[in-house]
Design a protein that fits this description.
120 residues, 4 helices, 0% strand
């Protein structure tokens, strides 16, 4: 017979995943919007703006996830939260690709592929 473990077994991963989405999506939208407004104003965004903005958003996403993962007692909850943390790590590794110019889509694809292969 399976033992009922209560809401703690699913609450932390749901809170973590929802929180990650609520930080990551608007955060990346703000970074993108900042770049676009600079371009619309006739300027050129600094090379560091995209990568640094992405790293800040990833850091703000990963910190609460790490705290929740430390609190989780259920193996399934810990594994789920660690998977979210791993996704933050991959996003951090891919952040420098945002420094490539807008017209360098093939170079960006190659850089992303090489980074992903190195992480695999």
């Amino acid at each position: 017979m399976q033992q009922d473990r209560g809401c703690a077994s699913w609450a932390l991963p749901v809170i973590g995943g929802g929180g990650a989405a609520l930080v990551m999506l608007p955060g990346q939208a703000v970074v993108w919007l900042g770049e676009q407004l600079t371009i619309l104003g006739g300027g050129v965004p600094p090379v560091w703006y995209g990568p640094v903005g992405s790293l800040v958003v990833v850091g703000l996403t990963a910190l609460p996830l790490a705290g929740l993962a430390a609190l989780a007692r259920e193996p399934a909850s810990r594994a789920t939260l660690r998977a979210w943390l791993l996704a933050c790590g991959v996003a951090a590794c891919l952040a420098p690709v945002r420094a490539l110019p807008a017209g360098a889509s093939q170079a960006a694809m190659l850089a992303q592929a090489l980074i992903c292969l190195a992480l695999a």
